[in-house]
Design brief:
Blueprint lengths: L1 H17 L7 E2 L3 E3 L3 E3 L1 E2 L6 E5 L4 E2 L5 E3 L4 E10 L5 E11 L6 E3 L10 E5 L5 E6 L13 E2 L5 E9 L5 E8 L11 E4 L7 E6 L6 E5 L5 E4 L4 E5 L4 E10 L6 E10 L6 E2 L4 E4 L4 E6 L6 E3 L11 E4 L5 E9 L2 E12 L5 E4 L7 E7 L8 E5 L4 E3 L2 E5 L4 E11 L2 E11 L7 E4 L3 E2 L4 E6 L6 E5 L5 E2 L4 E4 L4 E10 L5 E11 L4 E2 L3 E2 L15 E2 L5 E7 L5 E5 L9 E2 L2 E2 L3 E10 L6 E9 L2
Parallel strand pairs: 2-9, 24-29, 38-44, 46-53
Antiparallel strand pairs: 1-4, 3-7, 5-6, 5-8, 8-9, 10-11, 11-13, 12-14, 14-15, 16-17, 17-20, 18-19, 18-21, 21-22, 23-25, 25-27, 26-28, 28-29, 30-31, 31-34, 32-33, 32-35, 35-36, 37-39, 39-42, 40-41, 40-43, 43-44, 45-47, 48-49, 48-52, 50-51, 52-53
Amino acid sequence: MHRRYIFCLLVLLFSIKLNAQVVADFTFTDSICGSLDIKFTNKSSNASTFFWFFSPGTSNLVNPTKTFLAYGNYDITLIAFGNASQTDTITKTIHIFPLPNSSITGTLASLCPGDIGFLNAFYNSRYSYFWSPALYLSDSTKHNPQTSALITTRYYLLVKDTVSNCSDTSSFEIKVKSCKPPKSSFKVLKPNCGSYIVKFVNESSNSFGSKWYFDDGTQILIDPSDTVIHAYSQSGIYNVSLVTIDSFGIYTDSFTYTLAIGNNVVATLNNTDSKICRGDSMMLTGNGGTKPLKWFPNLWIDDSIGSVVIVKPMKSTRYFLVAEDNGCYDTASVFISVTEYPSFTIYSDSPCIGSKARAWIQPKPKYDTCLIWHWDDLDSSVGNYSTHIYSDSGLYSLHLKYSIDGCDTIANTQVKVFPLPKAIFDQNPTDVFIAQPWIQFYNRSQNASRYRWDFGDGVYLYDTSTTHMYLDTGTFTVQLVAFNQYGCSDTANNRFTIRPELTVYIPDAFTPNNIGPLENEKFRIYLNQTLPEFEFTIYNKWGERVFETNDQNFEWDGTFKGKPCLTNSYFWIMKYRVSQEKVSNEKGILYLFK
């Protein structure tokens, strides 16, 4: 008994194992960037053989690797086969994306320090760009930033496809070389007659910065393009030195000049310190000494020699007048304060034709009246905010006059005006009856990319052309709104009536005798709608035409040529057309009684 029990138990367990449920399953990377070779890991249970469908291609390996021919989406199907003819099937979709294009072009030649170099990555509107390091770059998130690197720098670019989330990297090296060492040099307008004021003209080359040593315990730093005037406290012999340095602080050069100075002359300026707007001019006049007067610095000045000069400084500047008398010098100065342009940004949107174009600035000025806007067609307005409506598409100029402290700043920008599409449609048929309520609408719109139909009965569609069925009679307005790729729209409408089926009532007798009921005194017919074509003719029994009309609301009083017709039978013919149908003919007999 014991052995039989064990044997039965083993048989039962083996049977259960043979009949276990087959479950097909596998894994893979469901979003793959750049690689077409995909490895699939079989996670099926209770299966012994497998068959894979890769669309295209198949495999019977347990864990196959598939090389796809192109990027895209693929459906992968696995069939797992177990014992006792059991199978299970599973299908999954794999997404294979190409790497974004991260190629870079740029300035290949070596740059001098401070020069502008260029980086240019392949552009795609789906891509986002991240440059590192951001040092010296105009914008580290654009595809084409500029660099003003002072040293050789390798820039690394991370390009990310915002649709597939795939990314790739590239790098590009901007080489910067030390261009030219500085060369220190200056000349001295040496005084002869005891003047303690000396002018030094800096003639250095390739200099980024300069330092003057005047041998009297003073020194100054100054831009290499400036001319320096120094006042000594007493006469004597001075060894004046100029030291120049390059932009890296690596190379320096010096020049020394032995100076003898003496007595003073008097220079007189006829101007006092003044305030002007940047871009305005000012006249400076002076006198002193016996030589032509000289003016420094030689910046924004029409002439540096003479008793009268015109200056137009672009920033606040102190001008020096140097008077000379036989090698002796004296100076006078005047400070001109220049009101700077305000810092602001003009913003404008891009409207469609007929919509308001808006313009504004940031930051907002303190007073609205500071701003005067001038649009292309000479329309103008005052205030922080301005609008304008254009009647045609194109690129238009917008001018802004910003006045502050009596000084005017002129700024310009451009406004892009997008064209409108043209919504056009027609329909067939144009006259509709409830018995045939299907209408075909043909979209004839121009310069449009998407559409919206409103059929006037609560139904909306977004097809190009379409067919619609109306469920009831009545008057409906069909509206087509056409949109272009800029979001601009145009609307077309068509109003029509769905009419009931034509019904006609034609009496077969009437009595024009002024005795019976009024409704029998005249012959008329009854129609439930107005027909586009209608003709009604009455003949007597001899075939003579006694009445004819095109008015479907006619009334015949039973006369012919002004005389009453005799009691008799008459023959009528009615010709008519309903909508676009062909012309129909109806015939009948009419009895006239007295």
